[in-house]
Structure formats: C-alpha cells, structure tokens
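Journal club prep, shared notes

We agreed each person brings one worked example of a sequence with its structure written out as tokens. Mine is histidine kinase. I'm keeping it raw so we can talk through how to read the token line rather than staring at a rendered picture. Sequence first:
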Amino acid sequence: MSSEIQETLLQSVEAFHSSQLIKNKYENILEHLDSGIILFDREGVLTFINVQMAKLLEVSRKSLTGCTLQQILRHPQLSRFNKKKILRIYREAIFHRKKYHELSDESGRQWLLTVTYGEQMDGDFLFSVKDVSDFKQIEQTAYRNDKLAMLGKISASIAHEIRNPLTAIRGFIQLLRPHLVKLGKDEYARIILMEIDRANDIIYEFLNSSKPSAPQTTVIAVSSLLKEVVLLTESEALMKGCEVVLHDEAKPLHISVDVKQIKQVILNIIKNAMDAIEELGPEHEGIIEIRTRADQNSVNIQISDNGKGMDHNTLTRLFDPFFTTKESGTGLGLSVSYRIIKNHRGYISVDSKCGYGTQFIISLPTVEAQEG
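Then the structure, token by token:
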C-alpha cells in the first residue's frame, strides 16, 4: 500500500516537473520573440511582458509586472509619447473592440498591434506588436511602380492627342505666313510658330519625365561626374545663400551609367536641398554636402543638407508622381529620379527629420559588379 502511494506521489512530482519544464520552455520562447508581447488579466493587471515589448517601451519588465493601466500611465520612466499611444490603444481595444492597430514610432518605423481576447483567453487581454516597416516599404514600392506605369501610359496618350492638332496648326500657319508677310504681320506668325514649338517641347519633357528612356550607358569616374554637377550648381547655390561641398573619395570609383540621366537625378536632389535651405531665411548658413563611399559591389552617393527637413507623412509620399509641397512644383522630379535609378539597377533612399535636414543616398553598381 505504501509503495503504491510512493509511486503515485513520484508520478505526480514527475508530472509537475514535466509540466513546469514545458511552461518554462514556452515562457522562454515568448520572452525572446521578435514581436512584443504583453498580457493583462481580467482585473486589468499586467501579468506578463516579454523582452521585446520592454525594449519598445524602454522600461524594465520587473517594474511593469503587476501594474494596472493607471500605474503604467503614471510610470516615471515611460515616455509621454508611449503613454499617449498606450491610452489610445486601450480606448480603441476596450471601448471600440478594435483588434488591429497600425502605429508609427518617433523614428518613423511602422508597427502592427494585434489584440486578442474572448472566451479562449479566459478574460485576459493579449497585446502583440510586430515591426512591419519592411512590409510597408515593399507595399509602397509596388504601389509607386503601378502609379508610374499608369502615368507613362496616360502621358503617352495625352502627348499623342495634343501633338496631332499642334502639328496641323503649325502647317496651316506656315501656309498663311506669306499672306501675313504681305500684311506686315510676319511677327505674329513667328510668335505663333515659336509658341507651338515651345508647347511641343513641354509635351516632350513631360513624356520623357513620366517614362524615362532606356539608359545609354558610358563608363565614368564618380568623382568626375560629381565635380561637373557641383560646377553646374555653385552659382545658384550662392544666390540662395548656401554652399555645395564635395568630399572626394580617395579611391577612384567607376560606374556605367547614362550620364545625362544620373546628372538629372543629382541636380534635382541638390535643387530641392537649396529650396529647403532657402525656406529657413537668409540668415541661415546653408550647406549641401556630397560624399561617396564604396559598399561591396556598389557606390553610395550621399547628398545631405541642413535645410528645414521633412515630416513622416511627406517622406512616405516623396516618390509618388504629382506629389509636391511646392506651389509651382509638378511633383514629377523625384518620381522620375526613382525610375531612373531603378533602370540603372540601383536604389535611392531618403532620411529626414523636421529641423534637422535631409539625406539622400543613391546606390549604383560599380563597373566591376556589372561585369561580374
């Protein structure tokens, strides 16, 4: 009898240890997930928080465990920004029963928060947060490419429809020109023809901008290309109260590019930087710095300025066709630049913050990488 009791007790102890090991194993997995996890019980007390969530909130796990929502919102180490986010999520999750939330942090990264509750949770509320910035970037790139493709088709159609009547008008004016000469009105014919030609040039530029032609590549030293660009922009920069500084790379780097197109991209970025500096007023000492850096099989051209910078909403739409913050802008410059760099098998990125300036990075494959 006693041996049976001992055996039963031993089995119970083994079962307890086994369940404890399984519990510890799963808790360890939850603690080290790349997603942030936080759990509140039915009384509103925080019973579990993993390492990632504590990092996101920038507060120690120990100081948060056992706290109610009110105590968390009064936590001295929790930033005001995070307190506002937590309160907003709580209201939407508890009162509006919203299960999914998209958030952006102070650095502009995108997060997806999921709330799980109901009978299966036995009254508990589970909040999980995952960084979806990369997925958002892919989504925006796909959306941007679709818009650019549509823009190319629309612009080609518009250009064709406008060019036809302009060609006819030009022909008739030339036929009428001898009669206008007799009437002493040759100047009228000259002006009409000049304006028709100007309209054709605008249409051509728009068409070329919305759908850049295939690159006609030439091997060129990056330093040589950038020196030419600096020479082209120096006088305008001085007029707008800023300086363009080129920090030349000691090691010679060569790229195979359509020189005209890449110049167009760099000039467009520098001109935008000048405008951003000019908006801060004549007393602001503006500086635009250009640097190059070799990065494995590519070269990075970094263009930074100390202008007014951009907010997150502007950054997310920066390369969209027709998006502009300028009164006289077309919104095509950066969308075209994006397409040109993509056609060169490179990429363009931007980092900016209001009051701290902007930095563009253009990455292009080196000649050695293209040959390989």
